[in-house]
């Protein structure tokens, strides 16, 4: 079976829970795309 790259889009990833979810997914090997309105340094 081929390896499948898991990909996630996390909205609100600049702060708080969205940021933590994005970080946790990345640590678990997911490809993560983030969306934010402000807080570009944090994202």
What does this structure look like?
With 43 residues, the chain is α+β, with helices and mostly antiparallel strands. Helices cover 28% and strands 23% of the residues. It has 1 helix and 2 strands; from the N terminus they run βαβ. It has one helix spanning 16-27, and strands at residues 7-11, 31-35. It has a two-stranded parallel ribbon. The chain is elongated. The model has no long low-confidence stretch (mean pLDDT 88).
Poorly predicted segments? none
By DSSP (H or I, 4+ residues per run), the number of helices equals 1
Write down the secondary-structure element order.
EHE
Rg (C-alpha, Å): 11 Å
- What's the helical proportion of residues? 25-40%
First-residue to last-residue Cα separation: 34 Å
Q: Bin the strand percentage.
A: 15-25%
Helical/strand content category: alpha+beta
Q: In this structure, how is the largest beta sheet organized?
A: 2 strands, parallel
The rough form would be described as elongated
Q: What is the number of strand segments?
A: 2
Roughly what is the average pLDDT, rounded to an integer? 88
Instruction: Enumerate the strands of the largest sheet in spatial order, edge to edge or round the barrel.
Output: 1-2
